[in-house]
Design goal:
alpha+beta, Ribosomal Protein S8, Chain: A, domain 1, Alpha-Beta Plaits, Structural Genomics Hypothetical 15.5 Kd Protein In mrcA-pckA Intergenic Region, Chain A, six-stranded antiparallel sheet, five-stranded antiparallel sheet, globular
């Protein structure tokens, strides 16, 4: 399949390069009749990949992040005569246990310890955190390496074990609800209102490729946001627009948002 033709509509270079890799995987499956898989992709990347893969007639594909509504998923690509349930290797699941009573650990700590082993971020899916342990979804081919080499998380000794998909605990996301007013539904105005920063500062985040709306990189301040949009600002965090309400007496728009904590 023609990479240029299939990705001609994509302007973002980083996204285009990821889609090139997806096409390479699909072509390899077509040529050698073998199962291939992508790295972990976010929902926007998965959406673009599915659009491309639907152009192929002689392959099947399945999206799997380990559990329902996962943030990061792998796309498995296989010959048309196979079924996903019969694939030999798909995802792997590990649980990292430790005594964290005196030193709280975060998603950043777990991820940092895994990347510190030399593992690429795209090989790791969602990290589900509980009080004394976390569960990691990852590519099958790096599972044993982590089992034998990860000894500490944030200076805490840890133990690791393989678990089954059915053992995953999908913890509910915690939010901090805020109410504010904004002058416009423009992206820069919304970020400024939610994080209580100036529009000039929010514009800097946008122009430096640090802002994503529903996982899509946005570089325009004037992007109009609607209810339920999820905004990620690298360096600040993520929030979901709960509701955009009526106008105030000072002609400002009422906004309710949920900051993910």
């Amino acid at each position: 399949m023609d990479k240029i033709k299939l990705t001609n509509h994509i302007k973002d270079i980083e996204l285009k390069n990821k889609m090139y890799k997806v096409i390479d995987k699909a072509n390899k499956c077509l040529k050698n009749y073998e199962v291939t898989q992508t790295d972990f992709l976010n929902p926007f990347e998965v959406k673009n990949a599915i659009s491309i893969l639907n152009s192929y007639d002689d392959i099947k594909f399945s999206v799997d992040g380990g559990y329902e509504n996962s943030e990061r998923s792998v796309i498995f690509i296989y010959p048309f005569y196979m079924e996903y349930e019969n694939l030999e290797h798909t995802l792997s699941f590990l649980q990292i246990d430790g005594n964290f009573k005196f030193r709280e650990v975060s998603h950043k700590d777990y991820l940092g310890s895994l990347l510190g082993l030399g593992i690429k971020r795209e090989k790791i899916g969602d990290i589900l955190i509980s009080d004394d342990f976390c569960q990691v979804i990852l590519s099958y081919d790096i599972s044993d390496f982590i089992l034998f080499n990860l000894k500490k998380v944030s200076k805490n000794n840890v133990s690791i074990k393989q678990i089954k998909k059915e053992d995953l605990i999908n913890k509910e996301i915690k939010f901090k609800e805020i109410t504010t007013t904004i002058s416009s539904q423009r992206l820069d105005c919304v970020i400024s209102g939610v994080y209580n920063i100036s529009r000039q500062e929010s514009s800097k985040y946008i122009s430096s490729d640090r802002v994503f709306v529903d996982y899509e990189k946005i570089t325009s301040n004037s992007k109009i946001l609607e209810n339920n949009a999820m905004v990620s600002v690298r360096g600040k965090g993520r929030f979901i627009i709960d509701s955009i309400g009526d106008m105030t007496k000072k002609d400002r728009i009422k906004l309710k948002a949920k900051i993910i904590v």
